[in-house]
Design brief:
The complex is a heterodimer of chains A (about 375) and B (about 130). Chain A is of the alpha+beta class and about 375 residues long. Chain A has eight helices and 20 strands. A six-stranded mixed sheet of chain A has the order 11-12-13-10-4-14. In chain A, helix 2 (about 35-45) packs across helix 7 (about 225-235). Chain B has a six-stranded antiparallel sheet. In chain B, strands 4-6-7 form a three-stranded antiparallel sheet. Classes of the chains: A alpha+beta (about 375), B alpha+beta (about 130). The interface between A and B is medium-sized, with 17 and 12 residues.
């Protein structure tokens, strides 16, 4: 199967991007340097093509109730124009996918899901939403770009001329227009910085991308690839599906226990509530390497000569300038300040258990 | 187009060796290799004194994104390593044929050098996208 291309493929090539395959899509991993792109987002702004992500509209009189049964998060926390992060659970309390739900109206919700799991999510929704609910996968007609970093507002206000932009709070969105077409503008992101996620139809995305790039020149905006997206979210300890989250990892284990707050019934509620109260079998640790060494996914984590788990995401932190990682380990064996070791190419490399996250949500808007 | 000095010998796996006399060489990774890796943040150096065979893994270079093995172009004994790289791995990006050298080797069998590519052959190899 050949990889799908986003509607920005030609723009990426023109910018000299190095393309890689990710979740069946051909996407830029970097343009010039992951470190430079990472620091641009932390200090000024970066723009990402994330059109591979899936978008699913769930609507109808039964939509809210049907969604509530699938997630451990209280749907009552939503209001029109607000979004929230949550996950779909299977019967064992494992995660089918993590997602954002945007409330368009009382009876209409816009779901943003992972690219590699979109099909599975649609099947799960179809199976579980039977009465008065319509499900529409709009991924194919939707493009998405994220603009992230403290200068995001100054850049975007030149392109999306809308009074609602200035006062837009975190996790809120509105539907503005660009070239006469609707653009969903959301104050959310996956980098630990202030910024926006923009959703629109495919045929205006290239103009929007290039307009933003031009508008951002004076602010040091850089196009950023999946490489920087990964190091940014790792510093912020945002869990990634397929790494910290999977069908055999619960939200409590996977570091997203904060999504568990629904009082009404939902799939696997008993298991999740029990884990919340009594602890889950495993937990995510944050590790900082003490030597010059870089922890990578699947490297074993050892404590007292005992294998306690493995790295789920790891790499070099451009901000801290050292190796950092999240690891899924047996719960309760180690705590902050303890020393563990990571097996790297057959050698044990010392690492300190540190507080989560490595980088707190900044939220600074210049 | 990446820089490929005339006076060096090259491997298919993008290492170079500067043969200083028949029995000693300085080794590193090519400009093309560092371009492909970008953002080199860690180098695992070999131990001085170990014997390696041609084609054997001798060092590890890590970029932000990936781990890459570095292979020995020829058989021999490691006589010196570039300790500077422990604190400044980025020298591999900025000066891959100079300050970014990785190790020195006493060449065991000089005829192995004949198996390596000259600059023209390596340029062709890179152009073919390998």
């Amino acid at each position: 199967m050949t990889a799908q291309r986003t509607f920005l493929y030609d723009d990426h090539i023109k910018l000299g991007a190095r393309m890689v395959e990710f979740a069946g899509w051909e996407l830029p991993v970097m343009y010039t340097s992951i470190i430079d792109e990472h620091m641009a987002v932390r200090q000024s702004a970066g723009i990402f093509d994330v059109s591979h992500m899936g978008e699913i509209v769930v609507k109808g009189r039964g939509a809210k109730a049907a969604l509530q049964r699938l997630i451990p998060t209280d749907m009552g926390r939503l209001e029109k124009g607000k979004s929230m992060y949550t996950c779909f659970l299977n019967e064992q309390g494992g995660i089918i996918d993590d997602l954002f739900i945007f409330m368009l109206s009382d009876n209409e919700y816009y779901l943003v899901v992972n690219a590699g799991t979109t099909e599975k999510d649609v099947e799960w929704l179809t199976l579980n939403c039977k009465t008065n609910v319509a499900i529409q996968d709009v991924s194919e007609v939707t493009s998405k770009i994220d603009i992230q970093g403290p200068q995001s507002y100054n850049i975007l206000k030149k392109i999306i001329k809308d009074d609602r932009l200035e006062g837009l709070q975190r996790f809120y969105f509105f539907t503005g227009t660009y070239k006469g077409e609707p653009v969903l503008v959301s104050q959310t992101g996956y980098t630990g910085e202030f910024g926006y996620e923009l959703f629109c139809i495919n045929n205006i995305i290239s103009r929007l991308w290039n307009d933003i790039l031009d508008a951002g020149k004076e602010y040091g905006l850089k196009p950023a690839g999946l490489g920087a997206r990964d190091t940014l979210r790792l510093e912020s300890c945002y869990s990634l599906y397929g790494h910290e989250l999977s069908e055999t990892i619960s939200p409590i284990e996977g570091g997203i226990g904060f999504v568990v707050n629904a009082t009404s019934d939902y799939i696997a509620k008993d298991i999740i509530e029990d884990q919340k109260k009594n602890g889950a079998p495993r937990e995510i640790l944050c590790l900082e390497m003490m030597d010059k060494a870089i922890p990578r996914s699947d490297y074993p984590v050892v404590y007292n000569k005992q294998d306690i788990g493995a790295i789920t995401s790891g790499g070099f932190s451009p901000l801290l300038k050292k190796g950092i990682a999240m690891a899924l380990v047996k719960r309760g064996l180690v705590t902050i300040h303890d020393e563990v070791s990571v097996g790297i190419r057959g050698k044990q490399s010392p690492a300190k258990v540190v507080a989560r996250p490595f980088y707190k949500y900044n939220g600074k808007r210049l | 187009m990446s820089n490929i000095p005339e006076n060096l010998k090259y491997t298919k796996t993008h290492e170079w060796i500067d043969v200083q006399d028949t029995y000693a060489g300085v080794c590193g990774i090519t400009d093309h290799a560092q371009e492909m890796l970008t953002d080199i943040v860690f180098v695992e150096l070999p131990e001085v004194g170990i014997e390696v065979k041609a084609g054997e893994q001798v060092a590890v270079v890590e970029s932000v994104k990936a781990v890459s093995d570095v292979y020995a172009p020829v058989s021999g004994r490691i006589t010196e390593v570039n300790k500077l790289l422990e604190d400044k791995p980025e020298l591999l990006n900025s000066d891959p044929y100079g300050e970014g050298w990785i190790y020195k080797i006493d060449i065991k069998d000089k005829y192995e050098l004949d198996e390596l590519m000259d600059a023209a052959a390596y340029a062709e190899h890179v152009a073919q996208g390998e």
